[in-house]
Amino acid sequence: MRAILLAGGLALIFTLLGTRVAIRVLVAKGYGQLIRDDGPTTHHTKRGTPTMGGLVIIISVLLAYALAKLITQDLPSWSGILLIFLLVGLGTVGFVDDYIKVAKQRSLGLRSKAKMAGQTIVAVIFGWLALTRPDDRGNTPASQAISFTRDMDRWTLPAVLVILLILLMIAGASNAVNLTDGLDGLATGASTMVFGAYTLVNIWQNNQSCVLSPGQKCYEVRDPLDLAVIAAALTGACFGFLWWNASPAKIFMGDTGSLSLGGALAGLAILTRTELLLAILGGLFVLQTLSVMLQVGWFKASGGKRLFRMAPLHHHFELKGWDEITVVIRFWIITGLCVATGLGVFYAEWVAGV
Predict the structure, then answer these.
(1) How far apart are CA 344 and CA 354, in angstroms?
(2) Which end of the chain is less crowded, N or C, counting CB atoms within 10 A of the terminal residue's CB?
(3) Do 31 and 251 form a contact (C-beta atoms < 8 A)?
(4) Domain coverage including residue 114
(5) What separation, in Å, do the N-terminal and C-terminal C-alpha atoms of the chain show?
(6) pLDDT value at position 273?
């Protein structure tokens, strides 16, 4: 528990202080955000705002996790190493994308095929390694069973299909957070709440672990306490970054942040055996992704008509006349309700003992 508090607190301090330094450095180098001309006109005032702030989040998480482990004299677990790999790997893909944007002064960075290739390589390596190195009880970090609040043993898949499912989850979650990162503080605030939820889930799974409390309701999750340390670090890092990213944003996380945070969410869901529960906890991200899919589908099916004024959904409400801060706060409320519902379902399943 001490490591969890240390990681969360240190990550919060690192992003609060580190982001201020990053803003100065990025402004000096002229690494500013480019704004799409087809978006809401109110966003044009954001042109030139420093981007790639996700680097601060990633570095803060790494430092906080390392220091928490050093202070508590505890070694990283295999699950923790894999989650850090996923965070850094997708952050690297996002960084390359962001750097191309600012270096070539265009609103599009990596080509979609190149970005997807990068995400695929990281996700497949993660998935393959997550099915290796079983512990003394035979548990690997990831399971071959589909999970909701725990593994559903009836739905066990071959390893190849599991890796494919992991790829779809990581690509979907990282792109969903990327789509949500369109208003000041929206994705950062929403991510803070979901990572906070996973911190609680991991603590509960550790307390009810089959190693500590054998029984019908126990959780066969490998390394839940170490995952809680990283989840707490992510929560603290996002919370500290929000100080500078809230409206009016002084810095954006960029694809460096959104891809890495989305990947970390998927990684936590996979490693905690709560894959389908992520759809509830991260309901806002699901809603944003569905709005884009519906917009594209409706546009093609209706011969050029639009279902929403603009997708993702937050832009639709902006174009309807809502102030940006109003959209952000109301979407945060939606996230809070999704998180509360997800945690309620998670706890109710344990109480029911189904």
Answers:
(1) 15
(2) C
(3) no
(4) 2-141+152-283
(5) 28
(6) 96
- Residue 228 corresponds to which tokens in the numbers above? 């809680």
Determine whether 25 is exposed, middle or buried from the number of CB atoms within 10 Å of its CB (0-12, 13-18, 19+): exposed
Distance between CA atoms of residues 151 and 271, nearest Å: 11
Query: 332 in a domain, yes or no?
Result: no
Question: Which pLDDT value is given to residue 28?
Answer: 85
Q: Which residues contact 140 (CB under 8 A, 6 or more apart)?
A: 130, 131, 132, 133, 134, 222
Q: How far apart are CA 234 and CA 229, in angstroms?
A: 9
Q: Which residues pair with 147 in a beta bridge?
A: 151
Non-local CB neighbours of 83 within 8 Å, separated by 6+ positions: 227, 230, 264, 267, 268, 271
| Mean pLDDT confidence for 166-186 | 96
Mean pLDDT of the chain: 91
Instruction: Indicate whether 340 belongs to any domain.
Output: no
Residue 255, pLDDT above cutoff 60: yes
* 39 has pLDDT over 60: no
Give the number of domains in the chain. 1
- Structural tokens at position 125: 């390596």
Among 269, 235, 339, smallest CA distance to 83 is for 269
Q: What share of the chain is helix, strand, coil (3-state, %, to 5)?
A: 70, 5, 30
Per DSSP (E only), the strands in 172-302 are none
Helix 186-207 with 254-271: angle, nearest 10 deg: 20
Q: CA 303, CA 92: separation in Å to the nearest integer? A: 39
Max distance between CA atoms of the chain, in angstroms, equals 62
Say if 334 falls within a structural domain: no
| Closest residue by Cα to residue 33 from 51, 20, 21 | 51
Residues in the chain: 354
CA quadruple 81, 6, 252, 275: dihedral sign = positive
pLDDT surpasses 90 at 235: yes
Top pLDDT among 131 and 303 is at 131
278/15 Cα distance (integer angstroms): 26
Q: Is residue 352, in this structure, part of any structural domain at all?
A: no
Strand boundaries in the chain, DSSP class E: 145-147, 151-156
